[in-house]
Amino acid sequence: MNRTHANPLHRRRWPALCAWLAGATTLLAHAAAPTPPADLVVRHAAVYTVEARTGWTDAFAVRDGRYVALGEREVRRHIGPQTRVLDLAGAMVMPGINDVHIHPLDGGWEDRFGCNFSPAATLEQVLARVSDCASKAGPGDWIVGAAFNGGLLAQMSSSQALALLDKASGDHPVILRDDSFHNRWVNSEVLRRARLDAASTPPPGGFYVKDAGDGQLTGLMKEFPAFHAIEQLIPPRTPERQMEAARGAVRTLNGLGITGIQDAFAYESSLRLWGQLDAQKGLSLHYVGSLPFLPSPQAGDRSGLDLVQVRESLRSPHVAPDFAKLFLDGVPPARTSNMIEPYLPDAEHGAHYHGPSTYTTEQLVDMLTELDRRGVPVKMHAVGDGAVRQALDAVAEVRRRNGPKGPRHQVAHASLVAEADVARFKALNVVVDVSPMLWFPTGLNLASAAAIGPERADRFNPIRKLVQAGALVAGGSDWPAGQPTPNPWIGIEGMVTRRNPLGEMPGQLGADQAVDLATALRVYTLNSAQAMGLGPVTGSIAVGKSADFIVLDRHLFKVPITQVHQTQVKQVFFEGRELSLQP
Q1: What's the rounded Cα separation, in Å, for the pair 573 and 323?
Q2: Distances (CA, A) of 359 to 324, 326, 371, 376, 428
Q3: Domain 107-231, CATH among 3.10.310.70, 3.40.50.10490, 3.30.460.80, 3.40.50.720
Q4: CATH superfamily placement of domain 98-102+237-578
Q5: Reduced to 3 states, what is the DSSP secondary structure of residue 442?
Q6: Are 378 and 394 in contact (CB under 8 A)?
Q7: Which helix or strand (DSSP H or E) is residue 551 part of?
Q8: Which are the contacts of 575, defined by CB distance < 8 A and separation ≥ 6?
Q9: Nearest-angstrom CA–CA distance, 307 and 138
């Protein structure tokens, strides 16, 4: 008799030994198997991963559009006969930028087809530009232009100013947009076509500005409901021009190093356009759409819950129609933002005016509860501290009703945040979408200061407080609404210096709210990706993520901070594929 197998102890050990031998054999087989070669290896670079664990590295490998290895020692074994090896001779590499708040189709359209002028333009310069566009327009053409500074609203609020606009525009209908996207100025021809006069009543939530002396309409209209019907009178954009605008926008964004965006206002027709571009292999960035709860100027478009219900039919490999969009208030220069403390007194509103709210808190809670229950995160436009508080109060109630693990909602802009509300963003898992670039002196800041006072205006965008409180702070441009360019390098520098990088405005805005460069870069990369729901996919250089990275003309951490806004992107890679940066 075999005593070894007769021993009960040996009988118990034998299965374990067999299992160990099987595992060892598998490990040896894997060790002996060759590593599949990478499609691309980047070497001898200063790679800023934006990952806290890895920080910096010197090389990485990419296969099938994703990072498969980091560091020179690791990437060597991924080099095969067909691998493209890119030696960057010490150049800085970082993840592609993610813009959490942008209007790409409008930006592309205005760049190519708009009657545009600088936000720094005076009223006289705006009128001169309209006159120039009118001289080149064809019969029946509308003149659609942007973006005048909010500080001009007072000058436009008179019958005399309207007469000057009429003279500049000739026989053409004119509609001009301000730099906040919330106000329009139209000429008398548009008022005539819209059948509006001094006796007309604006829709709820909209405002028609009248001359203080004669009571006549001035052509100035505040907030979307006021001019929604008028914009429907503009001849529709042709599909061909819309596609040209979309392609142009993608080229502009890629050229600035942007590989991911969240469209802050994505109509059904525009989502279909982006899906079409994606099918044509022309969408070289991650696109996240925010579905509006305002009616679309495009006939036949659905909005609100009707659009939310069909969002899956609008999804494509790079188009994610995942968010909803609500407007809780307006903008300070127009005195349409909701403030905890009242505006400075003026003739129109008196001494105790706090600004309007689009919804009651009960209405907002009901809408948020339904969307949250469906798993739909919401981007809420809230500029004034009163609107920000209303947003946070509503989310708190939704968390109570639906539980704490619902989707991560966003508060867009959050320009003013009461001290008592700073810590609530982290507690409620709410993103702070800081956009547009208002954390340094701009004309929009000056226009806001005229309405709320310089002391409050100096508290715009308390980014450092929010970061220190643990809030997820994400960065965006609001192009073309808040900025004439989506250039992220201007925003990154300004977030660190709190000064206007272009020198357009002197001084410093809220110097105590400056953050360091590493924080600013994270805000514009990983934080924005996480806010958009793309954190596992992009936003940092890490094994398994999409290889979306950019090569810069300078090492951002080795040049003076005042040179960061001059950064040029030398190469852009999206999903491991190098993009052409030719116009």
Answers
A1: 26
A2: 16, 10, 16, 19, 21
A3: 3.10.310.70
A4: Metal-dependent hydrolases (3.20.20.140)
A5: coil
A6: no
A7: strand 549-552
A8: 65, 66, 546, 547, 548
A9: 36
Q: Respond yes or no on whether the N-terminal peptide bond of residue 229 is cis (omega within 30° of 0).
A: no
Structure token pair of residue 341 = 């403390």
Q: HSE (CB half, 13 Å, CA atoms) of 202?
A: 18
Containing 573, the helix (H) or strand (E) segment is strand 569-574
**Tokens, residue 289:** 């759409």
Q: So where are the chain's domains?
A: 21-90, 98-102+237-578, 107-231
- Angle, vertex CA 494, rays to CA 523 and CA 344, nearest 5: 105
Q: Can you tell me the distance from the alpha carbon of 169 to that of 171, in angstroms, rounded to the nearest whole number?
A: 6
Distance CA 385, CA 461 (A): 11
Is there a contact between 145 and 114 (Cβ–Cβ < 8 Å)? yes
Q: Hey, what are 447's tokens?
A: 């226009």
C-alpha span between 253 and 281 (Å, rounded): 16
Torsional class of 218: left (φ above 0), alpha (ψ -120 to 50), beta (otherwise) = alpha
% of the chain beyond a pLDDT of 90 = 79
Distance CA 265, CA 537 (A): 23
Fill in the DSSP letter of residue 150: G
Gyration radius of the chain over CA positions:
27
Give the pLDDT of residue 25.
52
* Rounded Cα gap, residues 111 and 32, in angstroms: 56
Domain spanning 21-90, CATH architecture: Roll (2.30)
Q: In Å, what is the CA distance from 538 to each residue of 53, 66, 92, 377, 420?
A: 16, 10, 18, 19, 33
What pLDDT sits at residue 211? 94
**pLDDT over 60 (residue 303):** yes
Q: Name the band, by pLDDT with cuts 50, 70 and 90, for residue 10.
A: very low
pTM (predicted TM-score)? 0.86
Among 526, 574, 528, 583, smallest CA distance to 551 is for 574
Per the prediction, the chain carries an average pLDDT of 92
Percent of the chain whose predicted confidence (pLDDT) is above 70: 94
* 3-state SS, one letter per residue, for 210-226: ECCCCCCEEEEEECHHH
pLDDT at 510 over 50: yes
Residues in the chain: 583
pLDDT (tens digit per residue) in 32-78: 457 899 999 999 999 999 999 999 999 999 999 999 999 999 999 99
pLDDT in tens, 105-136: 999 998 988 898 887 899 999 999 999 999 98
Judge whether residue 392 has pLDDT over 80. Answer: yes
pLDDT number for residue 576: 98
Cα angle 455, 457, 463 (rounded to 5 degrees) comes to 110
Which band of pLDDT confidence, cut at 50, 70 and 90, is reported for residue 444? confident
Whether residue 104 contacts residue 139, with contact meaning beta carbons closer than 8 Å, is answered with no
pLDDT in tens, 485-506: 999 999 999 999 999 999 988 9
Alpha-carbon distance 133 to 122, whole Å?
17
pLDDT number for residue 118: 82
Where are the alpha helices (H) located in 33-79, listed in sequence order?
Answer: 72-75
